[in-house]
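Notes, p. 3: input format for complexes.
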Amino acid sequence: MTDARRPGLFLSFEGMDGSGKTTQMRLLIDRLRAEGYDLLETAEPGGTPIGLQIRKILLDSANQELSSRAELLLYFACRAQNVDQWIRPALAEGRVVVSDRFTDSTLAYQAVGRGLGEGIVREIHRFACREVQPDLTVYLDVDREVGLARARARNQERAAAAAPDETRIDDEAAEFHDRVRAAYARLCDQEPSRIRRVDAGQSIDEVAAAIWSAVEEHIAAHSLRKATADV
Ligand code: TMP
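Output follows (231 residues plus thymidine-5'-phosphate):
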């Protein structure tokens, strides 16, 4: 289930921790809402109430014994719930879905980072996500050191604010993050028409402009519902 065969538009954001993903997603969502699009904002892992419970297990640094295969299945359990409960219905209604991460994260972090392999991840994706794929994926490419420094600063702020601990993946060794970044680069090469690489080292405004120009091309190809259409 992808592109013009269904009315909605599915956009996802990908990037290493500290790539500015949250900021850019916010800017895009604000702009789409200002233009009147009916929008579902979601995230992986998380999204649905059940997904948020799974997210806690996945990201809690206390869960060091979580095995790679259990981790993989939990990411997909979360995503399957999101696809069934929120994403598919929203796309069927012609809404714009913006997801902070989707299966490309699993292809980078679990298939390559953890070494579980691309084949098994794609196979589980077909079952869990029922062919739902983003129409456009924005990959924010950030230098590893810049990204990790930003992620660590954010984690310290969260700890100071007594927010839930979400550092299990950020705490991985540098080699793990290098493998993940290399995997993203390969995904961009494999699917250049779906995945748009944006240099996250540019200014916030430059990054936002590059993202908007990619999104505009896709808006034109879909029959999207405007939130204000029946007012
Ligand atoms: P976030 O900080 O962007 O919310 O992402 C949570 C962490 O989970 C991040 O370190 C990336 C990781 N992750 C995976 O390892 N596999 C996945 O499939 C997803 C969606 C996220």
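DSSP finds eight helices and five strands in the chain.
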